[in-house]
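Run folding on both entries below.
>entry_1
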Amino acid sequence: MTLIDFILHIDDHLVTIVNQFGGWSYLILFAIIFIETGVVIFPFLPGDSLIFAASAMAANPKYGLNIWLIYLVVAFAAVLGDTANYEIGAWSTRAGEEHSWFNKLINQNNRLAAEKFFERHGPITIVIGRFIPFIRTFVPFISGGSKMHYGKFIAYNIIGGLLWTGLFTIIGFFFGNIPVVKDHFSMIVIAIILVSVVPIAIVALKKKMSLKSVWEITNP
């Protein structure tokens, strides 16, 4: 099983996980959401679709999942994950060149996109960024690295975490079992990914155009 297969067919894989692990499935949900939001080198894990799929399963009594417990688990994982990522960002700034190897593990294009997004929108990016894959993993890291006051960060972190997990929990619970949604789940996941990476593509395009303009000015 590849990562791409897991992401595109996460609904099927989640059924297998629940059938095999039962109540321990909540711990697996917690771990995936925590790692995606808390470890800056793992921004590609399927947070949105995972919450959506788990909530859809909770609406079906045969799986024995509790929607409120799912929400509490993923919301706590999201808030705790961002907090850990904030601390990693602060540590990376303090450590400086001593741990330069760590920066080599980070996707610099995604990091740049998150920085530009943060510069444009300010601290509210911590909330907005929750809804954008890749961006949401880098924003708390950048917040810690920029020495944002922790009190301000944690407030936005909690609000963003509750809104993000709440939205996908509600959507999944009420709409995830509609036949057309179930039959085209992979296409929905792809659509979410494509829409979500638009901000990253825009930043990359603007950077390319900016570099081109500078080159044209300096090389008439």
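>entry_2
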Amino acid sequence: MEIAGSIALVTGANRGLGRVLATALLDRGAKTVYAAARNPESITDPRLTPVRLDVTDPASVAAAAELAADATLVVNNAGVGSNGSLLTAPDLDAARKVLETNFFGPVHVSRAFAPILGRNGGGALVNVLSVLSWLAPPVTADYSAAKAAAWSFTNSARWELRGQGTLVVGVHVGYMDTDMAAHVEGPKVAPEDLARQVLDAVENGQEEVLGDELSRGVKAGLAGPVAAFER
């Protein structure tokens, strides 16, 4: 599909990659960009259309879908960071929050918007995943589990929505230079670079984005020994 003239909705559009994606869509000629966030007052770019959206609340998602019923491109970007080990955490309340946001959130949004995309010609659905869909160090056990589930859901949604002409794009990347990874040392991908790759993929009909060398290397090694991922 062409970005120019499209009508897009981006979740988690008030910061990080979501904010960059919303701006990049405008720069490529999107007609309307619905910038969705729990607090729409945090959307400050006057060119964007703020939308109140809590991806963990089906009623909130339904209201956003009613408002953005003309959407032709939906980006599931909203997410929260990891709380660590599933074995040593005092309870699983924090892990449930990670799963509700990073797995069930995209599922809620996709369920609401898939029929809309179908009615509007097919369009595209983009799910922002992670290299941690495939890697699961103990310090990100809950986040990795959520992203692995989201990857599996992305694959099944792609299969299911192909018949209505909807492109489903899965995006994998390591650390990005955003607030969520501010505490991390080492190489980081600029969100502007990843946004470019994502929008190029949409326009080129590409079903997967491996946004950095880490993601490409890990994906290539999936058929190898399990212990290799610990190294």
